[in-house]
Amino acid sequence: MNYLHCSSVVGNLTPSNRFSWGEIMKKLMTVVLSICLQGGFSLSAISAELEQIGTFDFPTSASGEAQKHFTLGVGYLHSFGWKQARTEFRKAQEIDPDFALAYWGESLTYNHPLIPVLQDPDSPKETLNRLGSTSEERHSKAPTSKEKGFLRAAEAFAFTDGSLGDKRLAWMYAMLDLYENFPEDREVAAFTAVAMLSGATVSNDNRVLNNFLTESGTEISMKAGAMAMDLFRENPNHPGAAHYIIHSFDHPTYAPLALSAAEKYASIAPAVSHARHMPTHIFIQHGMWDKVAEWNDSAFLAGWDLWEPGDAAGDQNHSSDWGQYGDLQRGNFDRSELWIERAGNVLGNNPGDGRSTGTLKTMKARHIIETEDWRTYELNESLNSDELLALGLSAANLGELDLAQSVADRLSTLASNSPNNTTLNLISMEINALTMFRKGQEDEAIDMLMNAISIAEDQSPPRGAASPLKPVHELAGDLLLEMGNHSKAAELYETSLGRMANRPRALLGAARSYAGMNDDYNARQNFQAFYSLWKDADIAAVSEAENYLGL
């Protein structure tokens, strides 16, 4: 069965006819080069001109005002503007209570395809049951085979028993079936791509998807991305195409494939906070800190303006977290403090909200770690892992080794109770190693950090801010630099920069390491890169860079 047929990019992917990695990447690059060399885009004839949420065409059996609100809902849905989309789909239902796709659309607003903690487990089923209490009744209100197919896919997610992973796979396969029947329909292609991205998250847990798709999550994401790029080439104002390209290639290796879509996306759908934030997934992989900070500022303000009492504050929390990270990487420490104030205001609007509380804690800890403005505070049970990391680093570097050991012990206990929490276990190893190092157990400390590095490298590089907040390679590089092992330190800093581009702390460490090796060329290159980012920061390292560069 030919599940995928993306006419100009992915071809027919059957069990016996799959592209090799090399072939897939060649085809992807062909599309990218085609887009870049055009110097502009030729838009297909499209019926919907929606200046604030994108341009696409999704005709249905409905008409008039119901179709208008449905189209708006789809536009918001493509950009994960859940609340806005839900409002429009419900308006369409009010106008036409038997409009099946209006219920299909609303059901998807509760189905976050990528982030399990944002999944609403019950509302998709409840929404579809409002259309009809049985599948037969629901399908009787979907006049066309395509509409029935979309509805069938929503039902596959809502009514599949089992885990969230089972539901995601059921949705993906139902959409692949629909795509097989309507390979030229661009909305079918768009929603198939996002369903594949959702299914890819399941395969990342090393589950065999079935006898057909046994690829890794990365491979499935590549295929989804290729489908989205084909659509983007046809219509570069399609919100889903740009959005799903970014998610597909959100990785240091593949991020260049998504740069054109990232540059375009925020202007496609400025009405949606997430659309303003999403390009920074690619900008952060390139170390483009000005854009990371500024676009998340725009996203935060959009989310803040849309927020009403009772709403979740996910957009504000997410953009605050990333915006602060961007400002810290460009050396704007005052802006980092502003972001912390903003996060406090978000929590004030959502008292007791776990995500808002966690975001604020993380941002305060990150400020300490990135600025190296070491400070200690009371060790208590309320501290999360990021706060413990900041406290442990501070205590060890301030010479308060009893406190550092207490933090290390606390982290060891937490890590032993959560063996599958990789980030927590890495943090525990970092603080235990640093504490040992400060106590003179240098070789044991380095051995522990090398073990931590091997664990980190078994994971995908961060898709966002550094995680842990102090990258393991950087910490190991810092300690080796102290020991005078400049060559090994430089190697670790370079590896860190390969995983997280253009981080100033890694650039500074690399510059110092190369200087210690009398490698003037590489020392200058890294000092200059560091200085260009942090020249306005009030830290001694700026003077160090100036002196080395002769400024």
Can you list the strand order of the major beta sheet?
Answer: 1-2
Strand content: under 5%
Taking all Cα atoms into account, the compactness measure Rg is: 25 Å
* Averaged pLDDT: 88
Q: How many DSSP H or I helices?
A: 27
Largest sheet, described in full? 2 strands, antiparallel
CATH class of the largest domain equals: Mainly Alpha
User: Which CATH architecture of the largest domain would you pick?
Assistant: Alpha Horseshoe
Relative helix content: 55-70%
How would you sum up this structure, described in words?
With 551 residues, the chain is mainly alpha-helical. It is built from 27 helices and four strands. It folds into three domains: 4-10 and 19-38 and 55-278, Alpha Horseshoe (Serine Threonine Protein Phosphatase 5, Tetratricopeptide repeat), CATH 1.25.40; 285-371, Serine Threonine Protein Phosphatase 5, Tetratricopeptide repeat, CATH 1.25.40; 388-549, Tetratricopeptide repeat domain (Serine Threonine Protein Phosphatase 5, Tetratricopeptide repeat, Alpha Horseshoe), CATH 1.25.40.10. It has helices at residues 21-38, 64-78, 82-95, 100-108, 123-131, 135-139, 145-159, 164-181, 186-203, 217-234, 239-248, 259-268, 273-277, 280-285, 289-306, 314-329, 333-349, 354-371, 385-397, 401-417, 422-438, 442-457, 472-483, 486-499, 504-516, 520-534, 540-549, and strands spanning 4-6, 11-13, 48-50, 54-56. The N and C termini lie far apart (65 Å).
What attributes does this structure have?
single chain; 551 residues; mainly alpha; Serine Threonine Protein Phosphatase 5, Tetratricopeptide repeat; 3 domains; two-stranded antiparallel sheet; two-stranded antiparallel ribbon; 27 helices; 4 strands; 66% helix; elongated; disordered N terminus
